[in-house]
Amino acid sequence: MRNRHVKQSIPSLLSEIRAKLALCNNDISKLGPPCDTNFQQFTLINGIATKYSRMAENSLNGNYRGLNKSDMFARKLIRDGLDKFCTTLQAEGPVKPFVTCTAEAKLILTDDGMTWSEKLMKDPTYGWIRQVIGSFRGTEFPGDLNPLVVDFLWRKQTTGWRAIAEDALAEAESIVERVNEALFQIVCSDDDLRVNLRDWLHADFQKASVDAAKELEPAVLNTHDSLEAYYELARWRFTDNAATQVIERHQLGPDGPLRLFSPQYVSEKLYGEQNEDALSNLVGENPNKAQKRLGLDSERRSLEESMKRLQAFKML
């Protein structure tokens, strides 16, 4: 009679144990794979790097399949930023706005008894150029132009280029940082490990920004020194030298933040006996987490054993 009652209660007991076991397994899963040994630690970090590297490469190549957040679309975001840079440089680059063909035509066509040259001098930019030419008069022959005039005018007209380019570079760095954060959220669900990884990579990530800033400096100066007759040509050249190449080479290139963290990088930094301490410090479990894992493993084994006994008793 008693055995029959026990057998009748077995299904509900099994259901309760299964529920507890599922909860226990879920808690263990949240802890991630164990990282007690150097091999386990290296396997974990190398797996994260492999997944990150693959997603980052797709993000940079414009292959957004599998990337479910717009913050991961690196190439699109960078191109949008460069489009903004070009527009800003065109609109705000010259200190004195150049006169368009349409505006010149309107000035010349007015019937006010003035010659066409007198009409053009009414424009502030033409007036400014005339004033600079007058202030630089020296020993040149009549009709000639003091060579310093062109240098002065171009340097004045491009005064704002540096600040605009620096803003574009800062925007690119911000985009790369956002993409990095979004990718790491996907490839590393362990909050503590993710923080450790990003801290570990920070110095090499920062190097890309420092190198880009260093390259921007001569790019600005060299563009000044090699400016020729046409501002538009010079502007496009500057856009390419000071922004596109700098950003592409340092922020998106092989040593940039999005391509730096890879299996090869992990192997170079963490593989081998000489790097065991560094690997353990980066990936090794803290004592509280390790203790929690031991407790959950013990609970899981106890639940699994209870389930086996109940199932065996049910068969009697």
TrEMBL record:
Q: Where is the GED domain?
A: 220-316
Q: InterPro entries recorded for this chain? A: GED_dom
What this protein is called in its record is Putative dynamin family protein
